[in-house]
Amino acid sequence: MTDLFNEAKSLFPYTQSLRRDFHMHPELGFKEIRTGGIVAKELEALGIEVTKGVGKTGVVGLLEGGKPGPVLLLRFDMDALPILEDTGAEYASQNSGIMHACGHDGHTAIGLTVAKILNAHKNEIAGTIKFCFQPSEEGFNGEEVGGAEMMMKDGVLENPKVDMSLSLHLWNEKPLGWINVAKGPVMAGAEEFKVKIIGKGGHGAIPEAAVDPVVCAAQIVSAAQTIVSRNVSPTQTAVVSFTMINGGTAFNIIPQEVTMEGTIRTFEPRVRETVVRRFEELIKGVASAMGCQAEVNVNRISPALINADEVTAKVQDTASRVLPQATHDNSPYLTMGAEDMAFMQEKIAGCYFFIGSNNAEKHLDYGHHHPKFDFDEQALVSGVALMSAAVMDILK
Ligand code: NI
Description:
Blueprint lengths: L1 H9 L1 H13 L8 H13 L3 E6 L3 E7 L2 E11 L26 H17 L5 E9 L12 H7 L10 E12 L2 E3 L3 E4 L1 E10 L3 E2 L9 H19 L6 E10 L5 E2 L2 E10 L2 H21 L3 E10 L2 E3 L1 H14 L4 E3 L11 H7 L1 E10 L19 H17 L2
Parallel strand pairs: 3-4, 3-5, 5-16, 6-15
Antiparallel strand pairs: 1-2, 2-4, 6-16, 7-14, 8-12, 8-13, 9-11, 10-12
Helix pairs in contact: 1-10, 2-4, 4-10, 6-7, 8-10
The structure holds nickel (II) ion (NI).
């Protein structure tokens, strides 16, 4: 099994050159034309059957093993972010204002290297591998849904029907050598909310003739803090964050209305239901008590990402064998970030794992989405080795 680690290591120059090329030429969600083109070309060069345009710019490769068995989907996201890069790296972005600041360049490079390894071992594989190179993980980018849902609309989970999935994230919150494969929830479900408080405008000096939506909004922001502290059990978690408040045009005018936006994050479906219900009740109640009207819209961005026990147990087992030198952390690792792989894992059993990638000595320890974000490329080897070995173990 450690052979696969050596195979991953010997292919490092290939992985690294792909990663650096993607890093230099980042593309935003649903615009991954160049990236998807390289992905398709590399897969085709291996003789893997390729379908382009799945979920707009997504690419799917199908590799049949030598023996029959289940269908395993491997997902790698390809999109970059609207950030002006400030790493000073020799392979820095050449598309000004667009940057691979989350490591998806690394994920795409890992995916192509895994394809190369598994293709060489296909006779030993009992089952089918569906390589899913996904666009637009970071947001909807003007579309109604993000990349994972867009690919699902185009049937990525069908023909052949997918039984299980594996996916990963390079993780700069943790150092190189740290590997987390955890059962249960790993990333939060995310909602986006928009609230409008409607009062009655008037003169700032004559408040008794107006109904002030600014004071009402302030009460709502304060009152909403009690949802997490008073309605959610202390042993569970949730976030309610107001991130935008807009209202008013001048110092002496009480405005007609105030709008507020923000996000709710939860892991458990029941906690989510409670938080969303209390959020609406509380806003309408406070608004009504203060003589205002409230419009509340809560839209789901993605469900929580939950790892299935059985497939995760297999990956945990594989990880300790293929990466014996690593620090294996199989404890629950909950991050409040959202991840649209959650839509696929709502339908099929999956395991999403984290590969520690920071290196403070090399100053490669900025967080995800920071203009100086970069990771230690040795993490690519761990990602390739663990993903390839997990497939070989699952499709034995
Ligand atoms: Ni990411």
